[in-house]
Design a protein that fits this description.
By secondary structure, the chain is α/β, with parallel strands linked by helices. The protein is 40% helix and 22% strand. The protein contains nine helices and 14 strands. Strands 5-8-2-1-11-13-14-12 form an eight-stranded mixed β-sheet, with helices on both faces. The chain has a four-stranded mixed β-sheet with strand order 7-6-9-10. The protein has a two-stranded antiparallel ribbon with strand order 3-4. A hairpin with an 8-residue loop joins strand 9 and strand 10. Helix 3 packs across helix 4 and helix 6 runs parallel beside helix 8.
Amino acid sequence: MSESNKNRAEILVQALPYIQNFHNKTIVVKYGGNAMLNDELKTAVIEDVILMACVGIRTVLVHGGGPEIETMLKKIGKESRFVNGLRYTDEETMDIVQMVLCGKVNKEITALIQKKGGKAIGLCGIDGGMLKAKKFNKDGLDIGLVGEIEQVDVSILNSILDSGIIPVISSVAYGIGEKEEGKSLNINADIAAAKIAAALSAEKLVLMTDIRGILRDINDENSLIKSVERQQLENLKKEGIITKGMIPKTDCCAIALDGGVKKAHIIDGRLPHAILIELFTNEGIGTMIEKHV
């Protein structure tokens, strides 16, 4: 046997216990960042997701699409408005969000999965009343048609997963409340993935980012913290280790874990096949967060 074939066999053998352990378990992947913009990375993510489904993992893909939305807003000459650093979503912007996320991006991902031999159904949070949200309201701040998830109904997802099909979900929710009843509301995709993972009692939530994971030193990519307990997250914030854009990522992981998800992972979507390396190898590639180590 050649050395390369021997190495391939060893990789498969190393993956075997993980494949056995995750069989018929649910894993929710939040797909975003550079992995959505680079064709090579896009293909790698799709291949990872299909392989997961092929070995019996109930795989859910939740996606964002911020850059695509920005591109479309620029095309129509729509200027973004911000309130206290948060984007204001008026009705025209919400139309673009829904068109791009639920139409263009969602169907492109679904088509890519089918092109690679998988089976997928594209959905948004409105379908089947999956995500119901109230308008964001914090300290009286009005940022338009942005929602906070109040209810999650995963019955339609379970039916799809029971059929061996991959649901691809865009983060637009059905509005509830006196003024927003029936309106589409924009939802943060990380939070949507966390809430869906909790409602499905998922084994894992995997968040794809543009950084290796939680770094002890933000300027040193080799300072990756490979595993951390849920209860340590607040201390890492106080110590200034979890800062800026990593705060909402870890907050989403906390939402998932507090909701019953066993483990959450923050991985670098800039690396091809990051999902498979994190899930099916001893070393992993990112930061794993769990309730108790």
